[in-house]
Amino acid sequence: MPVSQTDLEIALKNVLNVSHLEITDTSSGCGENYSIVIVSASFEGKTTLARHRLVNELLKDQIAQMHAFSQKTYTPKQWSDLQAKEAADAMMT
User: Fold this and answer.
1) pTM value?
2) Pick from 35, 75, 84, 87: most CB atoms within 10 A?
3) Residue 65 maps to which CATH number?
4) Domain range holding 52?
């Protein structure tokens, strides 16, 4: 049974204080491969591994139905810094 982007969004937003969320179906719409970017204050003070474990636990039922799942997790500060760096890099090219 394919997993929908809405299922993932609801599962994450119900538990995490999400300030930014990008969910991309990388399986051409069949719902078997997803890549997500999550920005949440809930990640403050956690290592990348701890963040990924938290997300994996929240989505364990959905991930069990997928072929592939990748995630990038950021704190609001990290996300802001990344956006500023990308904007600066874009201006230099």
Assistant:
1) 0.89
2) 75
3) 3.30.300.90
4) 5-91
